[in-house]
């Protein structure tokens, strides 16, 4: 007969063996897969040529400082556009979820806004606004193409983010609105204090996901000419017939997006845990 | 003579072609508790939601303290501010703690200073056995506690009328008592109430008047003794028999 203590020891030993075997398998398979990929790359007929065109250290060090400086334009543009997107997207979503007949024209406009702007590739919106608006010479409006590129990004992304918000608003159970209204809160107060806080909490990971996407898409304003990271890298590579500066720009984007992606994972995990703690009353 | 707190005249409500309420007449004088009984789908909940203006009625009129509130020109929010409602599934705000749930309407809808609203909320929470729970979120509370918070939230604005919509139907049986005790206490305070419930012993205890609702009409009404002991219509007799069968 086994005593409970014996059984516990046997189980612990079995768990240790399984963990050790798992670690060995993971290490071996990683070496095989990654090693195989590197070997395929290095042994390919064009490797030497590829290396000097894309991974030239001297080109990298020569171009990196100015690309890095230009990258600040991307960061600044990203931060400003992000805030604008969050505000415009929220407005669009709130308008689309109203039901009052008096607001029908606004609702129609918001629906059109979303349909049209989601239907056009972002790069075309940026291009059309960036070249079109300054060409109108309307007094009082800025003619800076970077400004209009930012407006284009805001319009395109707010259409997506508006739909994310709207999904969140619709996911809040109608009984919450009934409870808020029964307390005498106005429709606006119910939205602000009861519906939106719950809605935003639910769609936070999806919103952050769109952040990451926007962070990369600020590079699209390069079609308008401002000297941001991708543009500067393009100029370098055109001068030297070497693509390493483009790789340098890619490294900068990754350096920002990967930490953001990890942050999204963490928030998502926390959200799952808190949902496990209790249901919605 | 002061008008009744709430009066319904010929209230009719349709969902599509189905007439859920067919000309309801009801008078609730001040300090009275009217209990509405009837099988599921008889229109009890709809009746309460119509009184709170959460549903738009198709015909008839509702008067609150003698003023019509179902006229489209009347501000529905200001009428709702004078009523409180408690729901079957509690409907607490999950993102706000107990104190924030209770003080939301007093501070935002009634523009009461925050400190006054909080003091009043703490007083009520303590009275109904919820002291020390102010900073808990609803998902940390038992069903009975949640429903008691919901009642406190509904009375924190000092409403003229309290509407209770089957407030114990979603509770475990052993938690029903603590919630009904709160209502009994409010009745002693003189709160005017309309209560939809399936708890007949509770109805007998608090009701000044019982209405049996059947197929969208008030089929029979009277004192608890009349309705519960000697129902005169076959529908009410059948309904009450079904309930007693289930209880035994």
Core attributes:
heterodimer; A: 281 residues; mainly alpha; MetI-like fold; 2 domains; 10 helices; flat; disordered C terminus; B: 248 residues; alpha/beta; Rossmann fold; six-stranded mixed sheet; four-stranded antiparallel sheet; 9 helices; 10 strands
Shape of chain A: flat
Structural class of chain A: mainly alpha
- The assigned CATH architecture of the largest domain in chain B is 3-Layer(aba) Sandwich
Element-by-element helix/strand order of chain B: EEEHEEHEHHHEHEHEEHH
Describe, in plain words, how this protein is organized in 3D:
The complex is a heterodimer of chains A (281) and B (248). Chain A is mainly alpha-helical and 281 residues long. Chain A is built from ten helices and no strands. In chain A, 82% of the residues lie in helices and 0% in strands. In chain A, helix 3 packs across helix 6 and helix 3 (57-96) packs antiparallel against helix 8. The longest helix of chain A is centred in the first third of the chain and has 40 residues, at 57-96. Mean pLDDT of chain A is 89; it is low at 276-281. Chain B has 248 residues and is α/β, with parallel strands linked by helices. Chain B folds into two domains: 1-78 and 164-174 and 200-248, 3-Layer(aba) Sandwich (Rossmann fold), CATH 3.40.50; 83-159, no CATH class. In chain B, strands 6-7-8-3-9-10 form a six-stranded mixed beta sheet, with helices on both faces. The longest helix of chain B has 17 residues, at 173-189. In chain B, 44% of the residues are buried. The chains are: A mainly alpha (281), B alpha/beta (248). Chain A binds chain B through residues 175-176, 178-186, 189, 193-194, 197-198, 201, 277-281, and chain B through 49, 52, 54, 77-78, 80-85, 87, 89-95, 104-105, 108-110, 137-140, 146, 153-154, 157, 163.
